[in-house]
Amino acid sequence: MNKLFLSKLTQILLYGVLVSYAIVTLIPFLWALSASFKPLSEIVSGEANFFPRSFTLENYRQIFFQEPLFLRWLFNSVAIAVSVTGLNLLFNSMAGYALARLRFRGRQFWFFLLLAVLAIPAQITLIPTFLILKAIGWLNSYQGMIVPSMVNATFIFMMRQFFVNFPRELEEAAQLDGLGQFEIFRRIVLPLAKPALAAQAVFVFMGSWNNFLLPVVILFDPEMFTLPLGLNTFKGQYISYWNYIMAASMLFTLPVMILYAFFNRYFIQGVTFTGGKG
């Protein structure tokens, strides 16, 4: 009876901590959602009112119909994030499969080099990236935003871990049926790797969608700005239009929420599957 009581008490405390953490995490988001329906004067007044006193849709109207570049920024972000995600899914999966299954000279060297790349902060590569893009004339361009981000060492490692645990029997059966290595990868391995691919898609899309450092370094034409860079233009030296920033931020979160909802059934399974043996 004592053990049962302690078990129940522990469970209640655990759920209490988790619910408290969820509330603390959600409050800033809910405040931002509320602020997107407030006029600027109410936001900067300093009053801690959670619900809008003067409810308005003017902020959303302003961004869509008065800000001429907002839809262009949205298009740029979508085009770049979708392209980066698609290329990462292809190249990271191929590299991860090669490191896990193919036998070639220098395989261990490339794997240890991959691990070394994981230890390098992304900020260190910004200046070399800028200089290379400047030398080949890719500054302020879509290819300049997409090509440096089309592979990612973290997700090559993640896919390698998934393929290390992939059942060899399925590949051996496909070989007996006369399939080559590439056909096995395309027709057998990739369809069964949906959980890992879904987890990778969510992380890569979020990383590209929220990316601010690379655009701020290589983009200088307002028409080429992505949404994170475009939102920064609402902040001035003397006044920041927080009402427009909050409204645009709410629209900014929608694609990621939709993507997560779409891949949710694969996501947790993918994260679990990619942590197996080395």
Can you give a write-up of this model?
The chain has 278 residues and is mainly α. The chain has one domain (66-273): MetI-like (MetI-like fold), CATH 1.10.3720.10. It is built from 14 helices and no strands. It starts with a helix and ends in a 5-residue tail after the last helix.
User: What spatial form do the alpha-carbon principal axes imply?
Assistant: globular
* The CATH homology group name: MetI-like
Number of extended strands: 0
Strand pairing plus helix content: what structural class? mainly alpha
Biggest beta sheet attributes? none
CATH architecture: Orthogonal Bundle
Note the total helix count: 14
Query: What portion of residues belong to β-strands?
Result: under 5%
Task: State the domain count.
Answer: 1
Low-confidence stretches: 274-278
- N-to-C CA distance: 43 Å
Cα gyration radius (Å): 24 Å
